[in-house]
Write a structure and sequence with these properties.
heterodimer; A: alpha/beta; 15 strands; elongated; B: mainly alpha; globular
Chain lengths: 454, 479
């Protein structure tokens, strides 16, 4: 055997050793290292080891479960996913992205008053109902509309290091939602003033309409108009869409999370104040604070599998303390009941530094709880409001609490009670039913609306 | 279990390779191999294993009787019964629902169509067993006297559930007396890791693009503009080759690491200059099976024109049927049958095709093959109609959209990489480096580093891609 053959043999040996060593290290890691049980990035419990039964063995679901468990809880999983994401960031030109695809099914949105079956009188009445108007602005506000075509990552559109979800309108879900609101009005309309507010997502407010239309997204403004046109005339819609678009040059939506900011919800409060005939408080009247300066990476960041573009543009959670609460972090000003039934005092603007940074939107109103309430010590007029809401309502509630002696809020996704019952129990004068438009018309909450509206 | 699962790559495979390394006698190695194979196959539920064991038993006994009654009419009877029984079982599990569904559509009966789960790999191992039985009948191989060795052949996890369709005569020697050679182990490592990365990184990446555009929702599909359909078809064309050939690469690679030698199943089909050439390069083990066991016995092309056409259509009807119990697969098979007929009888075969400039031929073949994958993709005929209309911009939604152009731009470099991966450019570059390494020391060192590093890099890249992807089935599982 000559030298070259010896070298080749050595080379092959080294190759086999390197291959075996890699298998050993990665395989051994899977056996020895502790396995994670939950994913912070994906906000979910990871797959548990399957329960062994003869039936699951026979039908193959046991071993299939083992496969899933092994991969889902692999010790270095999050690092490997992050590495994969870094690799995928080089798959193409990704200054603008679309994450998750555009295979969204949307229904055409009927033009209010244009449908054959509509009652023209009802439509006219609906139009005559009090509607939200923006606080008059003496000069046009700067246009913050994003006109660039961005990068897609999932059903999330990423451009200029900001993420935008896409909105899909479902006619049947919208109609059911409208029916529920009208049913609630029938149930409680003689006792309370019912307001309905649909909050648009950032894409509809911040992006040029040709951009979201090209991405296959529905016209959320038109969807809101459709809902409003079909609501019972006795219901007052809080129309925030146009106002938010007027302010889209401001920081009214997070870049890396699907929620609006406290500033965005402040403009909704001003619209509501206009409907109530109040003079809204100016921002300068409130003491401001901020959390996680340039370190908040929210739900869009997780959903985009840690997009590098979003990581380069983290958010800050700004908040304003209601006038009726102390800024002292030790003073509890609200009460809430968690999903496990446990109730305790909390703060309406609560520092979340002890929590994972992806949860920092939860600084507002105790986040998504079945029930919460607050008493305003500065008022003694017995005024009371109930906000039935999803997570968008959390940032909105702190603006309200100065205007009522009692504020109650329930998250319709977790609340077992009905609006009728709660109105009776708490003696409120106003009910605000807040729902992101995608919840109102997306179909996911149909059953929940039926339950709470019954 | 699938090859592209973390559990397989980092537990099952190392344990299997270790067993083959430590065990010395061929018998011990085979016992270990059949044990691993049965565990692998049982992963989807042991009920399927009983079927596999039963079919191997039928063919084992059938082949022994065929050999025993050589030259007698009983031999033909045994052949007919064995092959017939295999096809009957395959038919029951694979085509009952399809046939009854069509009968119900036409006559309104039966009221209820039984839902029969398709055992994984049944199409592959049935064809392997049939080839074994026929080869025994033809006297090309001796009947295997030991049941468990035939079971090893049919259940060998390298190729049992997704091919290639290995002929018994090709692996008989390896089963009885195989030797692992360092050079082959080295080649096997490269082949396996290349296949794994092809599947985990490239094919799955193409699937992400294709699945966004070729959706199974009628309304959403109709909303995809023409360029979106083209991009989706292009991505799926890449995906299906990368996915399926990756499986064969891994099978061949694992075989080499253990001393088995499987024939090539793909030979860069997308560089073909004709449809005939495409089918010589695509799923070679299947096309040669149909050639040797159906087409030639029917008379092949050495018969009247009418009979030739009939033979062609029969073979391609069966090829389509083999891929799935649905009309779109039959349509897909017949589509290729018609194209091959046109090439042979209208365009004048190989010589006649030379009149067409080579670039035009290649582009034409790619376009026809890409279109075929659209037929292949949609088992629902209404969706298929929408997709075909969409390809030609007839769904009334314009030529392109921002999301399509964005999707393309977001994956531009990745798609270029995939295009390179389906051509022999990588193989050519390797050969150039190898040739240079024999002439200059610096290239020898570069080649050496490449040899050692590339399996590790590909394994890591695959692990990155696979992790978190808990269910990652191969496309060809349904067959």
């Amino acid at each position: 055997m000559n030298d070259r053959e010896n070298q080749n043999a050595l080379l092959r040996l080294m190759k086999a050793a390197a291959f075996a060593l890699t298998l050993l290290v990665l395989g051994g890691a899977g056996l020895i290292l502790p396995r994670p049980s939950q994913s912070v990035v994906e906000r979910r419990e990871l797959t548990a080891f399957p329960e062994f039964t003869l039936a699951s063995l026979w039908d193959g679901s046991f071993f299939s479960g083992v496969d899933t468990w092994y991969a889902d809880t692999y010790p270095m999983r999050e690092s490997l996913i992050a590495a994969q994401q870094s690799l995928e960031n080089n798959y193409g030109l990704r200054s603008t992205q679309l994450v998750g695809g555009s295979g969204m099914t949307v229904d055409a949105i009927p033009i209010p008053g244009d449908d054959a079956g509509a009652d023209p009188n009802a439509s006219a009445e609906a139009n005559a109902a009090p509607t939200a108007t923006a606080v008059p602005t003496p000069t046009p506000l700067p246009d913050g509309t994003v006109h660039e075509i961005g990068e897609f990552s999932g059903s999330i559109y990423i451009t200029n290091n900001c993420a935008y979800g896409m909105y899909g309108f479902s006619q049947s879900s919208a109609d059911q939602y409208i029916e529920t609101m009208n049913q609630i009005y029938k149930n409680v309309g003689d006792k309370v003033h019912l307001y309905v507010m649909n909050v648009p997502i950032s894409a509809s407010v911040m992006l040029d309409e040709t951009v979201w239309a090209d991405m296959g997204s529905s016209d959320e403004g038109a969807a809101i108009e459709y809902i409003c046109s079909k609501l019972d005339p006795g219901i007052t819609p809080i129309k925030v869409y146009d106002t938010l678009r007027e302010h889209n040059a401001e920081y009214i939506y997070f870049h890396t999370d699907h929620h609006w900011t406290a500033l965005g919800s402040y403009y909704a409060y001003r619209v509501f104040a206009g409907l109530k005939g109040w003079t809204p408080h100016e921002l300068s009247e409130f003491q401001s604070t901020s959390f996680g300066d340039n370190a908040f990476l929210g739900s869009y960041y997780s959903a985009s599998n840690k997009s590098a573009q979003l990581a380069a543009n983290p958010d800050t959670v700004y908040a304003w303390y209601p006038l009726c609460v102390s800024t002292d972090p030790n003073v509890r000003d609200m009460y809430m009941v968690q999903r496990d039934g446990q109730g305790f005092d909390w703060r309406i603007i609560n520092d979340m530094f002890d929590y994972d940074s992806s949860s920092w939107y939860c600084v507002f109103s105790g986040a998504d709880q079945p029930f919460a309430s607050m008493h305003n010590p500065n008022l003694h007029d017995g005024s009371a409001v109930m906000v039935v809401k999803d997570s968008y309502g959390n940032a909105f509630i702190p603006w309200l609490v100065d205007n009522y002696e009692y504020t109650y809020w329930v998250d319709f996704r977790y609340c077992d009670n009905t609006v009728s019952q709660m109105v009776q129990d708490y003696g409120v004068q106003d009910v605000i039913f807040e729902s992101a438009t995608f919840n109102a018309t997306g179909g996911l909450c149909n059953e929940l609306f039926l339950d709470i509206g019954s | 279990m699938v090859f592209s699962s973390m559990l397989f790559v980092f537990l099952f495979l190392p344990a299997n390779l270790l067993s083959q390394l430590l065990l010395k006698s061929p018998k011990a190695k085979n016992i270990a191999m059949v044990t691993f194979s049965l565990i692998f196959y049982s992963w989807a539920g042991p009920r399927y294993l009983l079927l596999l064991l039963g079919m191997v038993m039928i063919c084992w006994l059938g082949a022994i009787f065929i050999q025993m009654w050589e030259g007698s009419w009983v031999q033909k009877l045994c052949l007919g019964m064995t092959v017939g029984l295999c096809l009957l079982i395959l038919g029951i599990f694979k085509y009952t629902g399809f046939i009854l569904g069509n009968v119900q559509h036409l006559f309104g009966v039966p009221k209820v169509i039984p839902e029969i789960v398709l055992p994984i790999g049944i199409s592959f191992y049935t064809f392997q067993l049939i080839s074994y039985v026929v080869d025994v009948y033809r006297g090309e191989v001796q009947a295997q006297s030991r049941y468990w060795l035939l079971l090893l052949y049919a259940s060998l996890f390298h190729q049992c559930i997704a091919g290639p369709i290995v002929r018994y005569k090709d692996v008989n020697d390896d089963i009885i007396r195989r030797r692992t050679k360092p050079k082959e182990v080295s080649a096997g490592i490269s082949r396996f890791t290349v296949g794994l990365a092809k599947k985990a990184v490239l094919a799955n990446g193409c699937a992400v693009i294709a699945d966004q555009l070729l959706v199974f929702d009628g309304e959403a599909l109709a909303a995809v503009p023409a360029m979106g359909m083209l991009l989706g078809a292009f991505a799926f064309t890449l995906q299906i080759y990368l996915d399926f050939s990756a499986y064969s690469d891994m099978a061949i690679g694992m075989g080499l690491m253990c001393g088995f030698h499987y024939r090539e199943n793909f030979d860069y089909p997308y560089i073909s200059g004709s449809i005939t050439e495409f089918w010589r390069r695509w799923h070679i083990s299947l096309s040669t099976f149909f050639r040797d066991y159906v087409y030639i016995p029917l008379g092949g092309s050495r018969c009247s024109f009418g009979r030739q056409v009939l033979n062609l259509l029969v073979v391609w009807f069966l090829t389509g049927m083999w891929h799935g119990a649905s009309w779109n697969f039959i349509l897909w098979g017949l589509y290729f049958g018609v194209l091959l007929g046109i090439e042979r009888y209208v365009l004048g075969g190989k010589e006649g095709l030379k009149r067409i400039p080579a670039p035009a031929r290649h582009i034409g073949v790619l376009a026809l093959v890409t279109f075929s994958w659209i037929i292949f993709k949609f088992t629902d005929m209404a969706l298929l109609g929408t997709a075909v209309k969409g390809l030609f911009g007839l769904n009334g939604n314009g030529f392109s959209s921002a999301s399509v152009s964005l999707l393309f731009k977001n994956n531009l470099f990745f798609l270029i990489l995939c295009v390179i991966a389906v051509t022999p450019l990588g193989k050519l570059a390797r050969q150039v480096l190898k040739n240079l390494s024999e002439k200059k020391e610096i290239f020898y060192m570069i080649n050496g580093v490449w040899e050692i590093v590339h399996p590790v890099v590909l394994l890591l890249a695959s692990a990155m891609a696979l992790v978190g992807d808990s269910y990652n089935p191969f496309l060809y599982f349904q067959f």
